[in-house]
Amino acid sequence: MSAGELIQPKAAADADTPRQWGLLLLLLIANSTMLAVYMGVGSVLLPTQIASIDPAHKVTILGIIGGVSAIFATAFNPIAGALSDRSGKRNPWILGGAFVSCAGLVFLGTVRTALLLGIGWCLVQATMNTYQAAVTAIVPDRVPLARRGTASALVGLALPIGGTLGVLIATRTADSLSTGYLILGVMVSAAAALLSFHFRDVPRQQTAPEVSRQDKIAAFLSALAHHDFRWAFIGRALLVLGYFSVVGYQLYILDDHIALPKGMQPTDAMAILTPVSMVAMAVSTIVGGLLSDRWNRRKVFVGVSAALAGLVTVIPVISPTWPGMLVFSILNGLAFGCFMAVDTALVTMVLPNAEDAARDMGVLNIANAGPQIIAPFVASAIVTTMGGYSSLFLAGGVLALLGALAILPIRGVR
């Protein structure tokens, strides 16, 4: 029996009520502020701070800090998800993760060395992924199967909304980094409080029998033994690896590779490219999610969008210009938005067990965080030894195309 079938009866009762839509709205806010932190810090504040500390070695330092911090993200997401499942509660993990992250962001605004910067960002990654694991589990907990595509599309708007907001805040506070970090920390804390205080934890039945500690450890990654879940994991991991290999270095790409119009600074370009990409992402998120529900098709949307994400990476290689980056950003936004919205719906339909929803979604989130361990190191090596940013774009494209192929073996979802 699938996870959706197990939780369907309870969730269906509230499928179209104002309260259900209120929950989705607060989930949108919670995810938007989370992604504002990830995008604002990761794309602008962190690279800017590194460049001011050691401009000569900025590519290498960003790769090391990005890779090491992603290890913390990868570890804490499934661990926090499993603990959240075991406790039967989501809100304490949401609130705790957000408040400690806020403290970590404030700390980042005070440091002046690469070592302390790395330590602070590792703390934020760990606590934000604790927050993320609990928030992510609310959809399979409380949203009916028939509305997963719509719910995922609405929640998926968090990426364009949060990404745009985070980058705009970061670019406007690039000359006062401590202010930018503080604003982002307060935002995510406020969102966590709103969600937790308006939607109290729903008691969750623990139907699974007690097992030994050894069996629990063995079962931790057991979802990957499930055929469809495993291929969904692989497809997500490849697409995310390709995407973040490029996006993680966008500020440096604009500084060192793209011919910007006279007088335009890289942070100014980021402030334009990000909203353009995110608007495209928002459109494809809504359209992809709604059409996947209407046609009851997930794989075709996920596969085609991943393939498009791979193909468009040739544009900045052929045309390393400002117009070329604008076209790339629009098409890449369309592709990535549709993929993430519909793929999230697809994944909730191949979860092996509802009782382990947060744990298994946490395992899947390794496909989000895990590639970010590899991406900074790989991207840094490609840029410094294999021909610069053109080679980086092409490598990201190949990975996205492989991600599209990985969707084909999934059997349980059309």
Automatic annotation (TrEMBL):
It holds the Pfam family MFS_1. Signal peptide: none annotated. The chain crosses the membrane at residues 21-41, 61-80, 92-109, 115-139, 151-171, 177-197, 233-252, 272-291, 300-319, 325-351, 363-383, 389-410. The keyword Cell wall biogenesis/degradation does not apply. Keywords: Membrane, Transmembrane, Transmembrane helix. Coiled coil: none annotated. Residues 24-414 form the Major facilitator superfamily (MFS) profile domain. It is found in: Cell membrane. It is a multi-pass membrane protein. This is MFS transporter. It comes from Streptomyces lutosisoli.
